[in-house]
Specification:
Layout lengths: L1 H13 L3 H10 L13 H8 L1 H19 L12 H20 L12 H11 L1 H18 L2 H19 L5 H17 L1 H9 L9 H11 L1
């Protein structure tokens, strides 16, 4: 019964509509009515700019991490590592589902990438840091959040299956499923990337202005 209660709580944490709260509080708009229509960090970057996009991204990451760490309320998991990892994955996935289908926002949320990262950060910090390194590098080079998210997600099974060769089978399956899920939810973004019409986020403006001046 305690586990079930924590799973419900994880869903409610994931359902906190970070992007919607920020967009309504600071701009008086519903972020889902602009850009791609998603209630996530990528669309917030695109519509509201890098400052508020960063706030939303950090908030969504914290949702995934906080939900996954709910296991601390059950002492049994402190001394049973395998059971703890499995339960953390369940809690994290539930939070992601809450982000995608938030009860507090009429079940219309985002794609859950940042919340997924928060869960990975709680379960395996070293793998998470590797993935965020890929994300930041690609973002710096391209300014495509979607491409950064896709490549970071692909990096997850590479780290789990080959680089660190994690033994836990549920973690290995989870890593592959995450990469597949991110590819599935970013099909439209992939199409726009291939057509060269995907939106870039408004960061590194000063760098871009310098380049334009040099070209001029």
């Amino acid at each position: 019964m305690k586990e079930l209660g924590l799973i419900v709580l994880a869903y409610l944490i994931g359902s906190i509509p970070t992007a919607l709260i920020v967009s309504k509080r600071f701009f008086g708009i519903d972020i889902r009515e602009y850009g791609s229509g998603n209630m996530g960090a990528t669309n917030t970057f695109r519509v509201l700019g890098s400052r508020y996009g960063t706030v939303v991204m950090v908030g969504d990451i914290l949702k995934g991490a906080a939900a996954s760490l709910l296991f601390v309320f059950i002492p049994f998991y402190f001394s049973h590592e395998l059971a703890r990892i499995n339960f953390m994955i369940v809690l994290g996935i539930t939070a992601v589902l809450g982000h995608i289908f938030p009860v507090f926002a009429n079940f219309k949320g985002g794609k859950g990438v940042a919340t997924l990262f928060g869960m990975i950060l709680a379960v395996q910090p070293v793998v998470a840091i590797s993935c965020v390194g890929v994300f930041l590098l690609v973002l710096f080079l391209t300014r495509y959040v979607s491409l950064s998210s896709i490549l970071a997600a692909i990096m997850l099974p590479i780290c789990v299956l080959w680089i660190w060769n994690e033994d836990e089978i549920s973690y290995r399956i989870f890593a592959v499923l995450v990469a597949f899920l991110v590819l599935l939810t970013h099909q439209k973004n992939i199409g726009r990337l291939l057509r060269g019409v995907e939106s870039r986020i408004p960061i590194f403006k000063h760098r871009d202005r310098r380049k334009e001046r040099k070209k001029g």
